[in-house]
Design goal:
By secondary structure, the protein is α+β, with helices and mostly antiparallel strands. It has two domains: 163 residues, Fructose-1,6-Bisphosphatase, subunit A, domain 1 (Fructose-1,6-Bisphosphatase, Chain A, domain 1), CATH 3.30.540.10; 144 residues, D-Maltodextrin-Binding Protein, domain 2, CATH 3.40.190. Helices cover 31% and strands 27% of the residues. The chain has eleven helices and 14 strands. Strands 1, 2, 3, 4, 11, 12, 13 and 14 form an eight-stranded mixed β-sheet that branches. A six-stranded mixed β-sheet has the order 7-6-8-5-9-10, sandwiched between helices.
Length: 332
């Protein structure tokens, strides 16, 4: 472990440990799928994730945690996690990305975690962030957060070698996005609306042949923006974001977290600047991952895990026995 850190990266053995953490959170949340209780599902995921993080050999500080926006149970910002040994790291968590879609048994709920070297993740406050993201393989700066929607779509279509009608944008289904949706459609592109889960929406842009999504547009949580940037740092792509404080209290919160320029346009390198391990386990099945499947006392999961230093992308299918008696990881 010391050798890996000395060479400027995270211990590669953390990859499997991180996967175990998101697996535990996903299984805990999945027990509440379709039961209409968002807070119970979120709390179960938080408790399972905190429990598993306590077993991992690291000295971690949560820099992106569960926020106050929806008054959910928290792995709070500043919380120390890990077993007190190993590297010092920053941790970004979303134990249940898509609480509503889990409660309604809709597609694409995830348990998500990113770990970076200390100082490697933007300390983003819990507020909205305007975002634009595309996958890998395009020239740097081909899209811009401040450019008109039509200009971005045209540039992307030209780079991809297709007409604008061959481009599909992913947008959260919110009334605040009415102008974006209108602009996309008037430009001749298609819109895929999603009810929640903008981390998955951003990741979809990395494989449009599989997902049908070329670009992500619109505002969502700033913490989710950092987690999405961590994923793109591993798998490739571009993302830009700008905070959208709604009042003086949110501006002050951002300032206390070290963000002095509230209008700054954050790029991928600003949000995830060093070696990152990113993991997401499906809670409900969707375009990105299969959800948790219970078969008697057995649970089956699918996890996407990536590391930026090596560019490695893995999909792990796991089976856990006696999940009613214990969490994944306890003696597995």
């Amino acid at each position: 472990m010391a050798k890996d850190i000395a060479e400027g990266g995270l211990d590669r053995m953390l990859v499997l440990e991180v996967a175990r953490v998101t697996e535990a959170a996903a299984i805990a949340a999945a027990r509440f799928c379709g039961r209409g209780n968002e807070k119970a599902a979120d709390k179960a995921a938080v408790d399972a994730m905190r429990h598993e993080l306590g077993r991992v050999s690291l000295r971690g500080t949560v820099v992106i945690g569960e926020g106050e926006m929806d008054e959910a149970p928290m792995l709070y910002i500043g919380e120390e996690v890990g077993n007190g040994t190993g590297p010092e790291v920053d941790i970004a968590v979303d134990p249940l990305e898509g609480t509503t879609i889990c409660a309604k048994l809709m597609p694409n709920a995830l348990a998500v975690l990113a770990i970076s070297e200390r100082g490697g993740l933007l300390h983003a406050p819990d507020m909205y962030m305007n975002k634009i993201a595309i996958g890998p393989g395009y020239p740097a700066g081909i899209v811009d957060l401040d450019a008109p929607v039509e200009k971005n779509l045209k540039a992307l279509a030209e780079a991809k070698g297709v007409p604008i009608s061959g481009i599909t944008a992913c947008v959260l289904d919110r009334s605040r996005h009415a102008d974006i949706i209108k602009a996309v459609r008037e430009a001749g592109a298609a819109v895929q609306l999603i009810p929640d889960g903008d981390i998955a929406g951003v990741i979809w842009t990395t494989d449009p042949a599989e997902t049908g999504i070329d670009i992500y547009l619109g505002s969502g949580g700033a913490p989710e923006g950092v987690l999405a940037a961590a994923a793109l740092r591993c798998i490739g792509g571009q993302i830009q974001g700008r905070l959208m404080p709604s009042n003086d209290e949110e501006r002050e919160r951002a300032h206390k977290m070290g963000i002095t320029d509230i209008r700054k346009k954050f790029k991928l390198e600003d949000m995830a600047s060093s070696d990152v391990i990113f993991a997401a386990t499906g809670v409900t099945s969707g375009s990105l991952l299969d959800g948790v499947r219970f078969r008697g006392s057995t649970a089956e999961t699918e996890t996407l895990i990536m590391r930026s230093k090596t560019g490695t992308v893995r999909r792990i299918k796991s089976r856990f026995r006696d999940v009613g008696q214990r969490l994944p990881g306890n003696g597995d």
